[in-house]
């Protein structure tokens, strides 16, 4: 695991990852710069306080320690690069040896730099030993601390990388779930369309057989509008309620042409709700169910009523017709797909009920109100 770009699955993910990794590295280096500056200040303050009675210049002592530790920003950048080229997870001998050699080299160079800076600035005045008194132990003594710092920086790099990868994997998983849901919804929508198309074409052929050509032409025109609507909105899961109601009206006009002496309909929608988002073709299966089990089986006039209204922060869609629910209830493709689509889009936050209300059958959809279609 290192601060490196994972292999992308698509051009969009490639671009996102190329933008994310450098941004994470820059942010890490900015935090590291602030950390080493603070580390140097704290170290300098501690040393100055411990030698308070010696009368050392506090500005010189603090400046020396800041210069000693802030330069660790360069090894930090090097560790990020090495972590990219020699990942230590899973553990392998060569990367571990490589990091060990790097830690030792950085430790020696930083120790020599610190000694050289001390001899130049002489922050401890006369207490600073001359160059002739410097021994090998003075160079090697800080190596253990340098090793600890190297491991701390490496651990921080791995932690940041792990967090970034976790977020990327979470985003990828969410995108995959969304893609699977869209594919499932599209499959359900495709099941509805042939069913509706078959019924409408069958009705048109019936009109042609009885020489009701004008009605058949109107039905063909209405069917063309419905098919155009479906094609124009292919791939979209939600549309404005106003668009959905307009197409539902075309559908009901087609059905009214089939049953001119047995069917009437009304559609009532509050003007403020026309931009509310609803699943595409969500009302058509309910209206088709009302026509098939209400109008088609009735020997007298049957009124299909469609209504949309806001109840608190919810959107209620109703389709009502005179009829009786069969017992036991057997749901066709349309109603079954309606439940599946609502479950896929809203989880448990949507409700569909088909109930008997006196002499009428009521199909009720209860959805979260969303004005962002």
TrEMBL record:
Keywords: Membrane, Transmembrane, Transmembrane helix
Listed GO CC annotations: membrane
Xref: InterPro entries: Bact_2-comp_sensor_kinase, HATPase_C_sf, Sig_transdc_His_kin_internal
Keyword Transmembrane helix: yes
Domain Signal transduction histidine kinase internal region: 183-262
Entries under Pfam families matching the protein: His_kinase
Segments traversing the membrane: 60-82, 94-119, 139-160
A Gene Ontology molecular function term of the record: phosphorelay sensor kinase activity
Protein name: Signal transduction histidine kinase internal region domain-containing protein
Species lineage: Bacteria, Pseudomonadati, Pseudomonadota, Gammaproteobacteria, Lysobacterales
């Amino acid at each position: 695991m290192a601060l490196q770009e994972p292999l992308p699955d698509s051009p969009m993910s490639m671009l996102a990852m190329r933008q994310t990794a450098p941004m994470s590295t820059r942010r890490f280096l900015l935090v590291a710069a602030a950390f080493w500056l603070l580390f140097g200040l704290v170290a300098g303050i501690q040393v100055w306080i411990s030698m308070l009675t010696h009368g050392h210049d506090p500005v010189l002592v603090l400046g020396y320690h800041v210069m000693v530790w802030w330069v660790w920003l360069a090894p930090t950048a090097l560790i990020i690069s090495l972590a990219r080229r020699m990942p230590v997870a899973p553990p392998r001998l060569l990367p571990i040896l490589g990091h060990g050699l790097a830690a030792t080299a950085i430790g020696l160079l930083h120790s020599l730099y610190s000694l050289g800076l001390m001899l130049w600035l002489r922050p401890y005045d006369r207490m600073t030993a001359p160059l002739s008194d410097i021994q090998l132990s003075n160079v090697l003594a800080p190596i253990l601390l340098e090793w600890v710092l190297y491991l701390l920086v490496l651990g921080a790099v791995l932690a940041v990388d792990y967090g970034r990868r976790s977020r990327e994997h979470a985003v990828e998983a969410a995108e995959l779930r969304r893609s699977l849901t869209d594919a499932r919804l599209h499959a359900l929508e495709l099941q509805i369309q042939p069913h509706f198309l078959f019924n409408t074409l069958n009705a048109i052929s019936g009109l042609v057989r009885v020489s009701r050509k004008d009605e058949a032409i109107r039905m063909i025109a209405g069917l063309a509008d419905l098919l155009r609507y479906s094609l124009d909105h292919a791939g979209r899961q939600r549309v404005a309620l106003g668009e959905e109601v307009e197409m539902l009206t075309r559908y009901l006009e087609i059905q009214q042409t089939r049953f001119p002496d047995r069917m009437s309909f009304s559609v009532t929608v509050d003007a403020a709700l026309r931009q509310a988002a609803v699943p595409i073709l969500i009302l058509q299966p309910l209206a088709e169910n009302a026509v098939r089990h209400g109008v088609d089986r009735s020997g007298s006039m049957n009124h299909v009523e469609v209504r949309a209204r806001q109840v608190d922060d919810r959107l209620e869609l109703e389709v009502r017709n005179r009829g009786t629910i069969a017992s036991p209830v057997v749901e066709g493709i349309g109603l079954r797909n309606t439940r599946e689509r609502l479950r896929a889009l809203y989880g448990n936050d949507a409700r569909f009920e088909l109930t008997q209300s006196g002499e009428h059958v009521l199909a009720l959809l209860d959805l979260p109100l969303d004005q962002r279609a």
